Amino acid sequence: MAHTNAPTGRSIPLAGRGIRLAFVLPALILLGLFFVLPLISVAREAAAENGAAFGRVLRDPVFWQGVKGSLVLGTLAPAFSVVVGFLVALHLSRLSEGVKALALFAISLPLTFSGLVIAYGFILVFGRSGFVTLLLAKLGADPAVVGGFIFSPVGLGLAYSYYLIPRVVLVMLPVLSNFDRSQIAAARSLGAGNITAHLDVLVPQVMPALITAFCLTSAVAIGAYGTALALVGTQVNILPLVLYSKISDAGSDFPAAAAISLLLMGLCCLVVGVAELFRPRRVV
């Protein structure tokens, strides 16, 4: 009696593998040219002089002030953005598909602008000669005080929130759209108020998505550069501006700049890695 060895797994034909490789190859080339090779170059620069640049950076109090400033900005601005973005996504999830698509188009527009464009837009609106500042001046407000707000750390956080909130909405909207609202109705029928029902029923179930949105926006805020440079210059110590000071006209310490860039990238990767810890695992 002949026995046939049936395949234990699903094999992929060689032709299918070739097609998949053809689709993946351009992405691998781009990843190698614009991430791996620059990263190797930066790492070699930072490792010059037997890694002495890392020692100079870690002994520099300006670096640690930049870490502190980045962590504060990377916590408060994303926290505000998560709260606002969650409420916006919650409202959008209740709208019809046509209205939701139109609203998402408008909300996503800030993501198409560079940080410098956003910064100059805020200056034109809230600066010392901005539209809102001049309007409030006619009502008796001091233009110097109102116009100086956008150039402060709080104003910088507000400008960051302009492009962080859309990211939160894009993360939270699919989760909230698929939420079973009958659970809220059941909690309301048992005597819970509207806010209590949402806090006790909805928020715990979408908490992993909220943490993911916070970590994503925190990594963006920590690594953002153009908006901070245009609004506050070097008045606020954050890591991207400390890095800029090492290679600007006032400085030329390229090994230290490379070391700071690696540390900054590591910090952002660490923040994103925290989101992975709270990501729900699929049960097979």
TrEMBL record:
Belongs to the binding-protein-dependent transport system permease family. CysTW subfamily. Coiled coil: none annotated. It holds the Pfam family BPD_transp_1. Residues 67-275 form the ABC transmembrane type-1 domain. It comes from Azorhizobium oxalatiphilum. It is a multi-pass membrane protein. This is ABC transporter permease. It is found in: Cell membrane. GO terms for biological process: transmembrane transport. Gene3D superfamilies: MetI-like.
